[in-house]
Amino acid sequence: MRIGLLADLHANREAVEACFQALREAACDRYVFLGDLVGYGADPAWVVDFVRAQVDAGAIAVLGNHDDAAVAATAGGAMNARAEAAIAWTSTQLDAGQHAFLQALPLSVSEEDRLYVHANAWAPAAWGYVGNALAAARSMAATPARLTFCGHVHEPALYHALDASAHRFAPKPGVSIPLPQTRRWLAIPGSCGQPRDHDPAAACAWFDCRSRALTFLRVPYDHERAAAKIRAAGLPEAFASRLASGT
Amino acid sequence: MPIDLRPGLDIGGYTLVEPLHAGGMATLWRVSHPQQAFPLLAKLPNIGYGEGVSRIVSFEVERMLMPSLSGPHVPRFVASGETGDQPWLVMERVSGETLQPLLEQTPLAAERVAALGAAAALALDDLHRQHVVHLDIKPGNLLLHVDAQGHERIVLLDFGLSHHAHLPDLLGEQFSEPMGTAPYMAPEQVLGVRNDPRSDQFALGATLYYLATGETPFGAPTSDGGLRRRLYQPPRPPRELQPSMPRWLQEIILRCLEVDPDDRYPTAAQLAFDLQHPEQVVLGERAERIRDDGMLGSAKRWLRGFRLDAEELRARQARDELRPPLIVVAVDLKQGDPALDTALLDVTHRLVETAPNARLACLTVLRVARIGMDTNIDVEGRNRHVKRLIALRHWARPLGLTEQRITFHVLESADIAEAIIDYARNNAIDHIVMGARGITGMRRLLGSVSARVVAEANCTTTVVRAARHEAAADAMDTAGRKEE
User: Fold this and answer.
1) What is the domain class of B10-92 according to CATH?
2) Domain A2-245 architecture
3) pTM, rounded to two decimals
């Protein structure tokens, strides 16, 4: 089995389509969506429908903080004003069925020795970031799973731990990295719909269950089209312009 | 509980046949599998009670790295897994002996040391091109394999301490103390730097020193202080121990053993090149050293060693990802087009200038009869050879390269394209530059030399054309078509 991993899609249809095609070409036969399907981007309804169709076909999806905020009565308190405005707009773009789908998403899913969660394993609903080795160690200690796949942080990263301390590794796209079972691993594929590491290419990853190797990918896509749609929808200009600079 | 290893035991579909070697770190077994035709070997680390965590991590590293390696200089990876608590790794069993037994026969002749050194350097260059630094080069990890055609090559063994630039460095992150084998370890490795391919060159230099003199250049220190001594104390010049050693070999070995990696060869390919062309080695101060270089030399070395800073070295290496190329320019001295000559010089000049550590080998091929090699090569043959060499040097003069950066070679062959292709392969050349008209000027009879080199050489090839005016170009094209 080869699992395609997409995180932080953020209503960016062009990025999702490009990543999905790249993962299909890498012979993925299973997909996991690591949360934040919506927010920031101009195509929340299309992305939710796409993920729902995949879930109906056997994929796994978990809830992100933007998804939660879009369907909750009150927006999440931790968001900035611009993100909140986008959430309010997003909410109006989704029909009842799409709302219901997001509402029903689980916070985390465990499968064999793998954990899928949007933010972290120690308190998934509090949305704390795994932004450094210390947080990664805390998350890995909070789950019996050998492998954790998460998002929330938009930069791709791979953490590993043999004992109580964890170490960070900056993956190079396209390199197959075997993940020995002797230690724990926490992988962040990077954001599909809103990359922030100064590379506008959409991020995703795939994991081969037989060889236990993880490959990070960067997929160029038509970010100008995605940005134009954000502008046309009247969303904040910064959400559009950051797609070109990858910030 | 470690499982009891015995013949007939099944590990992941592989059957243990017989133990081959029981070392301190791991046990090696010959294994068999119904679907694998080539000989197999399993490595099973000793994981019993009281074994250190470094052994576990080291085996993790080997399991992570080996699947990414390929080519003739590493054993083929087959499979890895765990049976109970016992991890294992199955790979191709390459026939041959390591260089370890040769230590009984030291000192070896200089020519043999150079041949083994060149084979090992080519193997290292292949590994370094795959982004891996071995970090435990020593006689016991260099396997001499003789293939069916009788060609020798070195196969590198044991990647338990290795570093892959694109994979997490499990060892470097887990441990702060230096890891390696004391007599061979590079000074920067002693400081904890793990990402510099030139560390392998130092260890190979220590190996060649041992093979050529019967002694290791830095003894076999067991303390941290003893290990660090190589940062400031130079090795005894090998010619002091072995006066019959030629100067060129001392020059090469001492260059490998320089304390600052920047003073060694830029790549293992350049080291292999010098070992394969002793007559072209530029003899400097290193070649002449006969005893300890006294207080002053010691002080200089001490200062260099003292200034080596692990952080800076690591950063330097990460910055210089571009490999300094070995470039060949194949020159047809018989072709009569000055415009093509100028164009070839121009392109060569630009290529060499892009990397300060690039080296250029100027090559020309002297056609000889295919059968019945000239028996009277003595006088006449030597004259032709020398004339070509002089002409080649003259051709390259406008490049203005220092003698350390340029060498000249007159090859003799019946098949010009094949001579160039073989030369590039045997010397790990990165880039061939040649003129478009073909080196023979007999294209009609022999086909295009450049087309064959482009198709068959295992490196980048640039084919240069002369700049022409439109009218002249048209005329040439017409002529070309007629010829075809």
Assistant:
1) alpha beta
2) 4-Layer Sandwich (3.60)
3) 0.87
